[in-house]
Design brief:
The protein has 369 residues and is an alpha+beta fold. The protein has eight helices and 17 strands.
């Protein structure tokens, strides 16, 4: 059987000590350390234990009070290879200090991480959700890596979503050859994206202190953090911020189903924008067309002009919503009977396919009964 490096890790330790053990693994194996922040309304480890009892490809390897080690073994048809591949790897589930927020951690190459671990976690939605980090949060998390004076972050490459007029020309930008060793400054990359109306979706970067590379990472707006070098630095600087932001998002999602609200009243949320994003009927049509393509959802148009009123249902778990646009600068989502994972999926989809905004969840009156 293939060696599983995580099997030798003392999972009883706290995250800081685990990071030290991970750093040793990074030095001795040609693999990366991958983190996925997970939001789950029930204990995530318990959920996986129950799945393992009925699964042929998920098993429990070891368990401690705050951490569980699981093993996945699965044959999958990989389209781009054109054949069936058997994957096997361990992953950790670590509770954080923030209720409802967990870490899934694997020590694997990118192929196994994407085609096995992330593939499986995606299949658990909407029982779980991944936090979506907007551009300001994305930048804030990475900036936290500059914890000390003399520490700088340099970008090696980025993937971005073009502005609407260039949406069909989705492309990847890489640092020029003469910058490969040093990279481009983080501020330059984000400020350039703002100026061009682009949204960065993934970024590869290095952390340098006194001319020495102390960290090599990649990060995406919704999915994984990949660590090639400097796990301890990442865990002590950027990761706490990512967890705190995820906790804030999870609190905003919870308690919005009519099953749990007082007198079963609606508890809506709003996505607000600083500019008019619904200036005319064509913007209404564009938004409705995008919502109609939301995977595993039905979308019924109750009104499309001059205001928008949609009824959505999530086939995955039966969650349902009313979505309204009554002004040019905000979207109102009125949950009915819903799950946190489904609501997260809806908001993330709007951010990715339409436009990012600020999610507001307090003191909002419902425009529908």
């Amino acid at each position: 059987m293939k060696a599983m490096p995580l099997a030798d890790v003392d999972i009883s330790k706290d995250l800081t000590e685990l990071a030290r053990q991970f750093d040793k693994l990074l030095k001795s194996h040609k693999r990366n350390l991958a983190f996925q922040v997970v939001m789950c309304p029930i204990d995530f480890s318990d959920l996986l234990h129950k799945k393992a009892e009925k699964s042929e490809y998920l098993s429990v390897v070891r368990e401690e009070s705050e951490t569980s080690l699981f093993r996945l073994k699965k044959e999958r048809w990989i389209r781009y290879i054109g054949k069936q591949i058997e994957f096997q790897e361990d992953f950790l589930v670590k509770r954080t200090s923030k209720g409802g927020v967990y870490l899934a951690i694997a020590f694997a190459n990118s192929e196994i991480w994407s085609n096995l671990i992330l593939w499986y976690l995606e299949r658990l939605k909407p029982q779980i959700a991944f936090p979506y980090y907007n551009q300001n949060e994305f930048r804030e998390i990475i900036t936290n890596l500059k914890a000390n004076n003399g520490v700088e972050v340099f970008v090696a490459s980025r993937t971005y979503r073009p502005k609407e007029s260039q949406r069909k020309l989705h492309k990847t930008y890489k640092a020029r050859r003469e910058w490969e060793e040093e990279g481009i400054s983080l501020d330059y990359v984000f400020e350039g994206a703002i100026e061009e109306g682009e949204r960065i979706t993934k970024i590869n970067f290095k952390v340098v202190e006194n001319s020495e590379t102390i960290g090599d990472y990649s990060m995406a707006t919704q999915k994984d953090f990949i660590c090639k070098k400097g796990c301890s630095h990442f865990v002590n600087t950027a990761l706490p911020k990512a967890i705190t932001l995820a906790s804030k998002k999870f609190r905003l999602l919870t308690g919005r189903s009519r099953e749990t609200t007082p007198d079963h009243r609606a508890k809506p949320i709003e996505i607000r924008y600083k500019i008019p994003v619904f200036p005319d009927v064509s913007a209404n049509v564009d938004f409705i067309d995008k919502l109609r393509l939301l995977p595993n959802f039905s979308c019924t148009v109750l009104h499309g002009n001059p205001y928008i009123h949609l009824s959505l249902a999530d086939y995955s778990d039966g969650s349902s919503y009313q979505v309204l646009v009554l002004s040019k600068d905000k979207i109102t989502i009125v949950p009915q009977i819903i799950s946190e994972g489904s609501l997260s999926k809806l908001i993330t989809y709007i951010f990715e396919k339409f436009r990012e905004g600020e999610v507001i969840g307090e003191d909002i009156g419902s425009p529908v009964a």
